[in-house]
Amino acid sequence: MLVAGAGPVGLVAAALLARSGVPVTVFEQGSALSEESRASTFHPPTLDMLDELGATDPLIAQGLKAPSFQYRTKKHGVLAHFDFAPIADVTRHPYRVQAEQSKLTRIIADRMAGHPNFDLQFDSPVAGVTQDASGVEVTLDRGGRRETRRGRYLIGADGASSTVRRALGIEFEGFTWPDRLLVISTPFDFYSVVPELCSVSYVADPVRWYFLLQIPGLWRAMFLVNEDASDERVQTHEFAQSLMATVVPGISNYEIAHTTLYKVHQRVAKSFRAGRAFLAGDAAHINNPLGGMGMNGGIHDAVNLAQRLAAVWHGKADDVELDRYDRQRRLVTLETIQKYTIQNKKNLESTGDEFRESLRAIAADPARTRDYLLRVSMITTLTRAQELG
Ligand SMILES: Cc1cc2nc3c(=O)[nH]c(=O)nc-3n(C[C@H](O)[C@H](O)[C@H](O)COP(=O)(O)OP(=O)(O)OC[C@H]3O[C@@H](n4cnc5c(N)ncnc54)[C@H](O)[C@@H]3O)c2cc1C
Fold first, then answer.
1. Dihedral class, residue 307 (left if φ above 0, else alpha if ψ from -120 to 50, else beta)
2. What is the β-pairing status of strands 154-156 and 172-186?
């Protein structure tokens, strides 16, 4: 079995396959695992899944448990505060864990090092893919040398600009927002100045919304940048300070650990399967990060696909089993993840007046609160995938 990409999705799929007796080779273009600061929220069902790999406890040890989250507006203050306790009967982890995705990839790579079915090869960009009735062949570009490797199946988990997706000729349908996302990290202690703050806080505002999230040692503040300012100007210290100054009136001149600028997309591949090759994670779908559904959804793809591939590999299921991966994961991505993340963005851009009414109605009704928590935790997407058969 071949996997392109050693991000969280490729490594989860590879580790699950290797542990179920399928030999896997992972090709990673980088010379080490990525250090990039991106996903930092792991949802309850994802933590349940990662437990199977023994990765959840180390992740908790290196991260922060977030048992609740809140919505605010600059105008009204706290609109609603939700605790995950009402869904403790359907998950062993009724909380989010905030830890960078680079912690997860290192935990998995360390745990799998030396496993006889697990081979992780760095400096190995996949440059091309061909397939026939019995297998898939990838071309690797190793320092100007072209090499080929063959396997029975290929998982393309090589991120948003996926070479595998392009090589398979699969369209990446959707759109790119005109706005960019600026993430600013600071060691500033927001608890000392913002009353009733919790470690995940979405603050709606029609002019300048933001999202505050605590990770070990730092807070990350996310802003949408829709000015005409160039990428260069947006990434200056002064620009970051001007955004941070909008967070708490009267506080400015923050210590800034780092800033990163991202483009924001909503795209889903037209198919998650082409013969013996599959797409998973960002290679298959990308969305805005509000709600933390990108990597989590990608890990859910990896688990769904790895179980099916292992069953087919061991002769316990036939090929039609693999079509279910495309049907289930692609449809839930379109029906739920894309829809929720777009709605999350609209809510944050609003005055909060309507949003406040809807949150109040949810918070006042225990049945609606539970449904809401199942949805934001992504448990609903997993239930829906099962219903699709
Ligand atoms: C600011 C920000 C915040 C986010 N926050 C969250 C969050 O809190 N929760 C959440 O769920 N999601 C979040 N996301 C989204 C999340 O980061 C991605 O969904 C996640 O990284 C996808 O994982 P992946 O393994 O599919 O792809 P990637 O993490 O992109 O990994 C792909 C890997 O493939 C390698 N690669 C690329 N091309 C090739 C090739 N040709 N051959 C071999 N290897 C290759 C890359 O080097 C990389 O190691 C956030 C994103 C951003 C930008």
1. alpha
2. unpaired
User: Distance, CA 42 to ligand 1 centroid (Å)?
Assistant: 14
Distance 212 CA to ligand 1 centre (A): 21
- Mean pLDDT to the nearest integer, 94-110: 97
| Pairing mode of beta strands 2-4, 285-286 | unpaired
| pLDDT for residue 315 | 97
CA of 249 to the centre of ligand 1 (A): 34
Other Cβ atoms less than 10 A from the Cβ of 289: the count is: 23
Cα separations (Å) of 302 from 106, 115, 155, 157, 263?
17, 19, 9, 9, 24
Q: Which residues contact 304 (CB under 8 A, 6 or more apart)?
A: 325, 328, 329, 385
**CB–CB of 340/291 below 8 Å?**
yes
Cβ–ligand 1 distance for 5 under 6 Å, the answer yes
Q: Residue 102 C-alpha to ligand 1 middle, in angstroms?
A: 10
8 ligand 1 Cβ < 6 A:
yes
If you measure from the C-alpha of residue 11 to the centroid of ligand 1, how many angstroms do you get, rounded to a whole number?
11
Mind listing the pLDDT tens digit for each residue in 5-34?
999 999 999 999 999 999 999 999 999 999
Q: Which two tokens stand for residue 103?
A: 């912690």
Look at residue 143 and tell me whether its pLDDT is greater than 90.
no
pLDDT for 152 equals 98
- Average pLDDT value over all residues in the chain: 95
The answer to whether the CB of 97 is under 6 A from ligand 1 is: no
Does ligand 1 lie within 6 Å of residue 290's CB atom? no
In sequence order, which residues have a C-beta less than 8 Å from that of residue 237 and are 6 or more positions away? 256
Percent of the chain with pLDDT over 70: 100
- Answer whether residue 228 shows pLDDT above 90: no
31 by Cβ neighbours in 10 Å (0-12 / 13-18 / 19+) ranks as exposed
Ligand 1 touching residue 4 (CB < 6 A):
yes
Mean pLDDT of 251-258: 95
pTM of the model: 0.96
Model pLDDT for residues 157-204, shown as the tens digit of each residue = 999 999 999 999 999 999 999 989 999 999 999 999 999 999 999 999
Q: How far apart are CA 387 and CA 389, in angstroms?
A: 5
